Amino acid sequence: MRIEKRKLLWALCIVPFLKPDCIIGTVASRAWSIMDDMVFVGMALYLLYKIVLNKHKIIGISLLISVFYFAQVISSYANGLPVYLDVNTFLRYTLLVVTASLFLIDGEWSFVKFLYDLFKLIIFLNFISVILFYNKGINKDSYNTPIYFWSTKNHIISITLAALLLGEILHYLVMIPAKKYHRFVVVASLNVFLMKSSTAIIALCSYFLIVLAAKYLDPRNKVFTVKNTLIAGVIIQFLIVVVRIQDLLAPAIEALFHKNASLTGRTGLWDQAFKMIGSKLLLGYGNPLAKGVSGWLTMVNWNAATNTLDPVYYVAHNQFLEIFLNGGLTRVVLLLLVTVISAKQISRIKDKQILGYIAGATFAFLIVAITEVVYPYPPCYLLLLSILWMSKELNKYLDNHDTRGLKNV
Q: What is the three-state SS of the chain?
């Protein structure tokens, strides 16, 4: 009974941060917001009890993530924008990462399994919605893009990678049944392919290729390390976003994905972003949502209802450019600190096979970051905190368990 109560607590605290996009604009969305506010107060009281009265420790990187969000408050304030949204986001994400840290320390592998099961459930529900509402979606966003249970086609990949990596590690440690995990891999992969996001498909394939290569070609983890995949991901970012190497691959891009080298207009947005960043390099322009627009960049689109060309606001469709625009160099440096510190800590894991799995997910997330924005999505933070917790506890587990299938090379 104690375990069930504990899982209920985890669900009450974590689920509100995993709001499905399909309910946005509905009565269910308003009800979800009320639940979210109630949970916010409850989590604050819980943290006060655990940290102050019980003197619990937390995973240190969660504090740096909190500072990363507070920097956005400063940026918006410096630009004369209302800071309510940023303060709200700062408080909520601070609660999320700190509370998740406590859950990991208290719940250990049980909490990791809980997250995997939760992510898996969301992906299964999304897969069902894709089958039932194929090419139509449950509803559509402001750009007329179909929204399925969890998200639009491009944003499904973040939670998919998080679930696959956690599942791969748990399967490797023989903590979950192999057949069930393999069935989930098939469903998760079909989910991505049926939603037909080029970004998601490339990222997913990259993940599987590196995991397989690390397992069969690099068992000692000399090539496909977390450090090397980070470096490779940054180089690819530079070659595509700055050098525009994709122009040389235009025929292949057209043949495989039926898109031109502009990547559905993203290169035009990147050019705008580069021009704007130089004007406010240190703190950026603040949060565009505070001004009632979705992003600082614009493209002119044809409005069929009014038969006019209207400007439409866009995000940068690149992780690092978007952070530069909204929070400037200050937030970029903080993100780099989170990345470097996390990578160093993760690299302490002794098991080479697990390091290869993490390297695959790291590279895949960087591929997504070329054309999309990743960091606002809670599954990414929950995954990162789980892996950081494992970096301290996994070596002890491997030393104390004779687990079938492990390869301590």
A: CHHHHHHHHHHHHHHHHCCCHHHCCCHHHHHHHHHHHHHHHHHHHHHHHHHHHCCCCCCCHHHHHHHHHHHHHHHHHHCCCCCHHHHHHHHHHHHHHHHHHHHHHHHCHHHHHHHHHHHHHHHHHHHHHHHHCCCCCCEECCCCCEECCCCCCCCHHHHHHHHHHHHHHHHHCCCCCHHHHHHHHHHHHHHHHHHCCHHHHHHHHHHHHHHHHHHHCCCCCCCCCHHHHHHHHHHHHHHHHHHCHHHHHHHHHHHHHCCCCCCCCHHHHHHHHHHHHHHHCCCCCCCHHHHCCCCCEEEEEEECCCCEEEEEEECCCCHHHHHHHHHHHHHHHHHHHHHHHHHHHHCCCCCHHHHHHHHHHHHHHHHHHHHCCCCCCHHHHHHHHHHHHHHHHHHHHHHHCCCCCCCCC
